[in-house]
TrEMBL record:
Pfam families: Endonuclease_1. Residues 1-20 form the signal peptide. Keywords: Endonuclease, Hydrolase, Nuclease, Signal. This is Endonuclease I. Residues 85-160 are annotated as: Disordered. The lineage of its organism: Bacteria, Bacillati, Actinomycetota, Actinomycetes, Micromonosporales. InterPro entries: Endonuclease-I, His-Me_finger_sf. GO terms for molecular function: endonuclease activity; hydrolase activity. Residues 110-127 have a biased composition (Basic and acidic residues). It comes from Actinoplanes xinjiangensis.
């Protein structure tokens, strides 16, 4: 009896992968049962096939759908500050929101004519001033509090987002490091454990991003966003939202 009870308790403590989305059926078949470099390669092929690239201008309209405030359809949620702001306030002026590249363009480099520069899986709305403050900094813990963005911290070479989106940020970065592997004259984006590599295809810090992924699990906002990007815009998915357990297999 004690042996059976111990077995049941061990089973209950075993992590269970998040259920796949309805539109995920069959999408990852080529990756099943793989791990490490083989899994990363299979995922790269899957999320790079049959995709549609947006123009940078069309990204404005797409973000108004992907990042819509669930409580106010006239607004979007800004990624770092968490503020709800009018969709009509997109632009470059004070009080406007613009297009934050979670993987900075200089960490490639790439520009907004390239597919990485218009990839919705790492583009999010953010206040113009806060976006400028983040700049091309790597991700890490620590720093001084960021004005007008409660919960965010920053220092000379790193940015720490608020707790509610730490995992979101990590999974966007993981996606980019799998999606872009140096093909078609695009950069080979990779993670590292440093905060001083602006101007190269590296972004840090990997151990911190892994910890953020564990601390902030996938939520409904991320799942909805992933579905919209797949169904309406790019026709590819972020595998680390659908299968969070693959993060450790690829990057752990």
């Amino acid at each position: 009896m004690l042996t059976v009870l111990a077995g049941l308790l061990a089973l209950a403590a075993t992590p269970v992968a998040a259920p796949a989305a309805a539109s995920d059926a069959g999408y990852y078949d080529a990756a099943r049962g793989l791990s490490g470099a083989r899994l990363k390669g299979a995922l790269h092929d899957i999320i790079s096939t049959g995709t549609t690239a947006l123009s940078y201008r069309k990204v404005w309209d797409a973000l108004k759908v992907t990042d819509e405030d669930p409580s106010n359809p006239a607004n979007v949620i800004l990624v770092y500050s968490g503020t709800s702001r009018s969709k009509a306030r997109n632009g470059g002026g004070r009080g406007d929101w613009n297009r934050e590249h979670v993987w900075p363009q200089s960490h490639g480099p790439f520009d907004t004519r390239d597919t990485p520069g218009t990839d919705l899986h790492h583009l999010r709305p953010e206040d113009v001033t806060i976006n400028s403050g983040r700049g091309n900094k790597d991700f890490d813990n620590g720093g001084a509090p960021v004005a007008r963005a409660p919960g965010n911290r920053s220092d000379a070479d790193s940015w720490e987002p608020r707790d509610a989106v730490k995992g979101d940020v990590a999974r966007m970065v993981f996606y980019m490091a799998v999606r872009y592997e140096g093909e078609s004259r695009l950069p080979d984006l990779e993670l590292d454990d440093a905060t001083t590599h602006g101007g190269t295809p590296l972004l840090g810090r990997r151990p911190v991003l892994l910890a953020w992924h564990d601390r902030d699990p996938v939520d409904a906002f991320e799942r909805r966003r992933n579905e919209i990007i797949f169904e309406r815009y790019q026709h590819n998915r972020n595998p680390f939202i659908d299968h969070p357990e693959w993060v450790d297999e690829v990057f752990g």
